[in-house]
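Re: that chain you flagged

S.,

Sorry for the slow reply, it's been a week of failed gels. I finally had a moment to sit down with the sequence you sent. For the record, here it is as I used it:
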Amino acid sequence: MRRYDLVVFDFDGTLADSLGWFRRILPDVEATFGLRPLDPAQFDAHRSMPARALIAKMGVRWWQLPGIARYARRRMSAEAATIALFDGVPAMLSRLRDAGVRLAVVTTNSEANVLRILGDAAACIDHFGCGAAMFGKKRHTRAAMRATGVAPARTLCVGDELRDADAARAVGADFVPVGWGYTLPSAFEAAGHAAPLDTPARIFDRAVAP
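Prediction finished late last night. Pasting the structure tokens below so you have them in one place:
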């Protein structure tokens, strides 16, 4: 018997390898919105910070967050061809689907960007919860569970940021971090989470293996 009936994925940094893209556009975001520039030499240190602490360090005002999100979505729409799925993601999604697991994507990104980058792998996804606010994934995760008819106890959330873990905890679902995305593995361990998975194939093992 499989462990979970629904796996809810974050997108950027979990399924899509967009960290390099984010790093490239960050100076433009800082200049456009009048933010305090982050020291590029401290980039890895910033990847250990919770999202709320990082945006405070940058001087982001809360009312700026929706505009920043829209700007990032537009930039990614224009540059989506430069972003690919992580190696092994399409095969992992297909294996989960074949095992009878329902799949959802919950993300701050737009559905158009997600579909374009997923390509043929989009056919594996049962539910898309796109356009979430930076700290609004809880509502979209609940919607994914309602849409698929799966209870929180049978739901696994997979993400690469501490805020993904917060959203999972808020809805009563389990969470497993991945170690190839935005947040450094050491930050998850320091926050009391299990060691992040090291390959997409391990997601299948975590979700399905008894």
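What I noticed first: The beta strands are 6-9, 102-106, 127-129, 155-159, 174-177.

Talk soon,
D.
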